Amino acid sequence: MIVFDLKCGAGHRFEGWFASAEDFGVQREEGLIGCPKCGSASIDRIPSATRINSGVAAPVGLPVGGEATRDPELAGKDPFAMAQILYSRLVDEILTKTEDVGKAFPAEARRIYYDEAPARPIRGQASQEEHDALVDEGIPVARLPLPSGRAS
User: Fold this and answer.
1) Mean pLDDT of the chain, nearest integer
2) pLDDT digits (tens, 9 = 90+) for 51-73
3) Is 24 inside any structural domain?
4) How far apart are CA 66 and CA 112, in angstroms?
């Protein structure tokens, strides 16, 4: 199952769940997708937030309410500084809990998705065209630029 963020011709945003990117395309072409607010069948995919499955039990995000004061590194920090610290932690998690497959990323992502290779978290490089092709196949990937000096 894949979730797409969608927008109708009138500008209403909503999400749709599809078996694959191809399934979305077929339903869109046949006019089977309609805006829940206005019923318009003029639907486009829009950029959506990424999700990373790093194997961490709790989702990574900005602390809410009193949670910030429980972390001495975050206590008293403005939201931008907290976001930088948390992003750095996320990058550390990605680098320590994923396998770097380098330029073989598109091929290895496909092998994992189609159960031709063991399921595991991977990272690597892909051109914009390779990334778009993976997304169009319904393969869940995310482009995450790493700060310089943190690529390995």
Assistant:
1) 81
2) 555 444 444 444 444 454 467 88
3) yes
4) 40
What gap in Å lies between CA 68 and CA 91, rounded to an integer? 20
Q: Supply the pLDDT for residue 60.
A: 46
In 10 A of CB 124, how many CB atoms?
16
Reading the block at residue 88, the tokens are: 């750095």
For residues 76 and 66, give the distance between their C-alpha atoms in angstroms, rounded to a whole number: 11
- The amino acid at residue 129 is E
Q: Does residue 76 share a domain with residue 116?
A: yes
pLDDT of residue 51: 54
> Token pair 């598109």 is at which residue?
106
Give the three-class secondary structure for 93. helix
Structurally, the chain folds into a number of domains equal to 2
Structure token pair of residue 149? 């000096």
pLDDT value of position 86: 84
